[in-house]
Design a protein that fits this description.
The complex is a heterodimer of chains A (366) and B (619). By secondary structure, chain A is mostly helical. Helix content of chain A is 67%, strand content 4%. Chain A contains 15 helices and three strands. In chain A, β2 (99-105) and β3 (108-111) form a beta hairpin. Chain A is globular, with a radius of gyration of 20 Å. In chain B, the strands form seven sheets. In chain B, strands 2, 3, 4, 5 and 10 form a five-stranded mixed β-sheet that branches. Chain B has a five-stranded antiparallel β-sheet with strand order 12-11-21-20-19, sandwiched between helices. Chain B has a three-stranded antiparallel β-sheet with strand order 1-8-9. The chains are: A mainly alpha (366), B alpha+beta (619).
Chain lengths: 366, 619
């Protein structure tokens, strides 16, 4: 065993936080699906999630063994593989919840875009670390834009607006860390604002509905806003202490949409109240702080970019998903990392954390 | 992160109660348990109106997505045009979404099977057990009973939350009058449902309290006779016990079949019923306001004797007509000679118009009007039915007020024989004649057997006057030359007075080519025994021409049946067969059902509404 990869250097604190979050998730998945009829494919979902977590932890350990520089070296290959995977989805993908985002791999459905997200973190980390400047010029920004843009467009074609949007924070985080110029940042913000109405025409009707509902919730409280309304009822009726695990009426009655996955926090908020939400959000905050800390301690720029990329993705996921529960963010198919049921999402988060471990464990190696 | 926590704080701490209520409303569904309405029974306890179980289909409207997707299947499965359901949905927009609305009131076996088999994949429909009214067939006692119907928006508002859309309430007749008693209180089943409406837990179960039954004064046996006698006619019958005010029978024809619209009547059918020139929805017994014709002579006789304005032995010579104020007034025997010299008794028995023209001229309109009003005309009797009409007794003051014209003396001559502006309802005449024969005691007519308070009016009539007037009415039926001589009943003091009220003048009728719609209305008010009568029967047969031939036999049959039943009871030979009795299967009732239906006898097409002209009475 090499000096820098001893068990002692493993980030036990982070793992503890992560497992705590996963446990909350599994408990709530159990609570959300216990009332399902025996014939339903929701039966035993918590066990499935448990095994995903176990596999996730294993993946994380495996990934932490391989030096992240090796991973970075293979970035171009990974990138191409990712694009090929997305292409495959567009050709032979399976539809779920209206998007063609899944492919079948030995009986399990795999959401390729989740893994591509991970690849983009790696690709952009390598890209930004190689720019080696404190003032990014437009050409560099353009290159970063293209690298991110190609998979984003492919995911938009599925169409999965929510997941595609999650790629932008990775690019943005990297850009800021490598010293984007303020005038460029302002210019991009303006261009984005101007492009919004144009993009509107490319949205599917249900996407427009969601955004309309978000902007004017009073217009159609029972139509497209139904999901948000039911989530808010669940959250609000939970009160301070909640109704108790397994006793949330909105959860048990199935009023919360996809309560075992995207809306799992609404179910948790109903059954454990504000206290439960507080604990959950604190756990996520500790996790993110821990990531930032790890980034600061990284040996080199590429390590820092990797960890901050992961932090950016996780942070935005948490923010968007949690915001969805209380109507602050329009409904998109963004799961709550580590808590929502889902193999692809859980695995990709653990793999991302594996990269973080990797960087941390090699912080003293020179 | 803090930003999000503030969001949760707002929802979970500040607005927690509000969302708690929303969550409860989401999961708890209140399903009403409909209380059966009380039965309606006749005076002997025979069931006239009963209930039968039925199912209403309710549409749940809470999830708009499910609704939009499932509606076409609902429409197809229940056989209702999709458009119609959407219209109903739109019309119920203001009702809170968590309240289901009824979209089909009488679910068939197929509908029930459809709903049960699609419970899992179509969680939009709910069955509600209800009780529907079963009324006697063919309009038997239809107007008095009335009918129930779906509650109107106004009634829902007025009930202050007690009544919901889809509830049934009394719309007319006794059903409306005693709605509170009959309706009962609905129970409630509160259950926990999941997001697709499946019941997962039972919370509360409040049984419905059935409505109370009401027992009527109606005598089924007499009603059967009255209905049979009036089958195919247009008119009304009211039989009263004048001593108590109890209504023994009440018929109005033509009559609708309330069963045909006890659920939800198609708009077209309802429109047709309302626009039918025969006005089948009119309860002629209390709502037909028509000239009483010669029946009014009993009021004139009483007024003449009581006012003492004219000596009792006053006589007049009848050559078949009389001339008053420069105009000729015909007696009903005009063209066939005259009555000759007649006194009061003979004038009543033979219904001499000329005699009463003279009496009217000498009494003057205001005295006539005073007595007519005191004896119960021109105002409501106060019967326990909605929509009673008050009739009209003209006076100088009335004419000045309404027409801004002075009273012409010639009009008094017409009024004296029950023509002109004078109009009465059959019920008023029954109460008035019965009251006169009782010596001036007028009871409030009523249909509820154990009525709490029955108002009594007294207008004391001299013993002598009562004796003379009742002797005259006895003569009408029992003396040779009496106008109702043909209806004599052996062994029964059957008395009465005929009437034939013109709708237009005799000349006008000739010009109109003797069309039936202008033919005289036939009246007869009969009672028995002569003094202190037990039963009084008023009969109106519209366009029946002669009271003697068209109306008197109806009263005779009813009174005959009354005495048959009474004597059988006295001899303990009459028993009410409760067990065999059922409204729709009663053999007697079937007899009526087999009788000619009004529509067959009177084609609707040839009967536009009577015109109100000159001396006409219907209004």
């Amino acid at each position: 065993m090499k000096e820098g990869t001893r068990l002692r250097d493993f980030d036990w604190v982070m793992l503890l936080i992560v497992l705590a979050i996963c446990s909350l998730g599994i408990v709530e998945i159990y609570s959300a699906t216990q009332a399902a009829p025996p014939s339903s494919n929701l039966v035993g979902l918590h066990w499935k999630q448990f095994w995903w977590v176990v596999i996730g932890v294993a993946c994380m350990l495996v990934l932490s063994r391989i030096d992240y520089h090796t991973v970075l070296d293979h970035a171009p290959l990974l990138y191409l593989a990712g694009l090929a995977g997305l292409m495959l989805v567009l050709i032979i993908g399976e539809s779920k919840f209206g998007s063609k985002s899944w492919i079948k791999v030995s009986g399990h459905t795999l959401q390729v875009s989740e893994l591509v997200k991970l690849i983009i973190i790696v690709v952009l980390a390598r890209f930004y670390s190689e720019v080696r400047t404190d003032r990014l010029n437009l050409l560099d920004l353009g290159k970063a834009g293209v690298l991110t843009g190609v998979p984003v467009v492919m995911i938009l074609l599925q169409p999965d607006f929510g997941t595609a949007a999650m790629f932008l924070p990775i690019a943005a985080m990297g850009a800021f860390l490598s010293g984007i110029q303020w005038k460029h940042a302002v210019a991009f913000a303006l261009i984005a604002a101007l492009l919004m109405p144009v993009g509107w025409y490319f949205l599917k009707p249900y996407q427009k509905d969601r955004i309309n509902t978000f902007l004017r919730p009073g217009d159609n409280p029972k139509g497209a806003g139904y999901q948000t309304q039911q989530a808010k009822i669940a959250v609000g009726s939970g009160g301070i202490w909640g109704k108790g695990i397994g006793k949330g009426t909105q959860n048990q009655g199935g009023f919360i949409p996809v309560r075992w996955s995207d809306f799992i926090l609404a179910a948790l908020a109903e059954e454990t109240g504000f206290i439960g939400v507080l604990v959950t959000l604190l756990l996520y905050m500790f996790l993110l702080l821990r990531l930032v800390q790890n980034a600061q301690r990284a040996k080199d720029r590429s390590g820092m970019y990797l960890v901050m990329g992961v932090a950016a993705v996780l942070g935005v996921h948490v923010f968007v998903n949690v915001g969805m529960m209380i109507g602050y963010v329009p409904v998109t198919g963004i799961p709550l990392p580590l808590m929502s049921y889902g193999g692809s999402s859980t695995l990709s988060v653990f793999m991302a954390l594996g990269l973080v471990m990797n960087v941390r464990m090699r912080r003293f190696v020179n | 992160m803090l930003f999000l926590l503030i969001g949760f704080w707002k929802l979970q701490i500040i607005q927690s109660d509000h969302y708690g209520q929303l969550a409860e409303r989401n999961r708890i569904r209140s399903i009403p348990i409909i209380a059966p309405r009380g039965q309606i029974k006749d005076r002997d306890g025979r069931v006239l109106v009963d209930n039968y179980p039925s199912f209403s289909v309710l549409l749940l409207r809470e999830d708009p997505k499910l609704l939009a997707e499932g509606l076409p299947l609902v429409a197809e499965g229940l056989g209702i045009p999709l458009q119609e359901i959407q219209q109903q949905l739109e019309a119920s927009n203001h009702i809170p979404k968590f309240q289901p609305i009824p979209i089909k009131l009488e679910a068939s076996q197929a509908d029930i099977a459809f709903i049960e088999s699609h419970r899992a994949d179509l969680p939009l429909l709910e069955l509600l057990m209800v009780h529907r009214r079963r009324y006697p067939r063919d309009g038997f006692l239809a107007h008095a009973i009335g009918y129930v119907g779906e509650i109107s928006e106004k009634q829902i508002e007025a009930s202050g939350g007690k009544l919901r859309p889809g509830d049934f309430v009394g719309k007319s007749g006794l059903e409306r009058q005693y709605n509170e008693t009959l309706m009962g209180t609905d129970g409630m089943r509160r259950v926990v449902v999941n997001s697709v409406g499946k019941e997962v837990e039972r919370l509360e179960h409040v049984e419905a309290q059935a409505g109370e039954k009401i027992q009527l004064t109606i005598d089924y046996d007499l009603q059967v006779v009255a209905e049979a006698a009036m089958a195919g006619q247009k008119g009304a019958v009211v039989a009263l016990d004048p001593r108590s005010g109890e209504v023994l029978a009440m018929v109005s024809r033509p009559a609708p079949d309330p069963n045909s619209f006890a659920v939800r009547i198609p708009v077209e059918e309802w429109k047709q019923l309302n626009e039918d020139p025969d006005r089948p929805l009119l309860n002629r017994a209390i709502q037909a306001q028509l000239a009483p014709g010669s029946v009014f002579k009993i009021i004139m006789s009483t007024a003449m004797l009581e006012s003492k304005a004219i000596p009792e032995n006053f006589t007049a010579f009848c050559p078949g007509y009389g001339t008053f104020y420069g105009r000729m007034f015909k007696c009903h025997v005009f063209g066939k000679g005259g009555h000759g010299q007649v006194d009061l008794h003979n004038a009543v028995v033979r219904s001499c118009d000329v005699f009463f023209y003279n009496v009217g001229m000498r009494l003057g309109i205001d005295r006539i009007s005073y007595y007519a009003y005191q004896l119960g005309l021109g105002r409501r009797t106060g019967i326990d039915l909605p929509g009673e009409m008050e009739g009209l007794v003209p006076s100088e003051e009335w004419k000045q007020r309404v027409f801004k014209q002075p009273w012409y003396a010639g009009e008094t001559i017409s009024v004296a024989v029950g023509q002109g502006a004078t109009v009465t309802t059959p019920l008023q005449l029954a109460r008035t004649i019965g009251g006169i024969a009782l010596g001036g005691v007028f009871k409030q007519p009523h249909l509820l057997l154990d009525a709490k308070s029955v108002k009594e009016e007294t207008f004391p009539i001299n013993e002598h006057t009562t004796e003379v007037v009742t002797q005259a009415m006895f003569g009408v039926v029992n003396e040779g030359g009496g106008t109702a001589e043909a209806s004599r009943l052996e062994g029964i003091e059957f008395c009465g007075k005929t009437g034939s009220a013109q709708l237009i003048s005799a000349e006008g009728l000739k010009k109109a080519g003797q069309q039936k719609r202008f033919a005289d209305n036939a009246w007869f008010v009969g009672y028995a025994p002569r003094r202190n009568p037990e039963i009084v029967v008023a009969v109106l047969v519209e366009h029946g021409l002669h009271g003697s031939s068209a109306a008197a036999p109806v009263a005779r049959d009813i009174i005959k049946r009354y005495y048959e039943k009474k004597s059988a009871r006295d001899k303990k030979q009459y028993t009410v067969d409760y067990k065999r009795y059922e409204v729709s299967d009663s053999p007697e009732h079937n007899q009526i059902a087999q009788g000619p239906k009004p529509a067959e006898v009177m084609p609707k097409t040839s009967l536009p509404a009577p015109q109100q002209k000159g001396k006409s009475g219907l209004r």
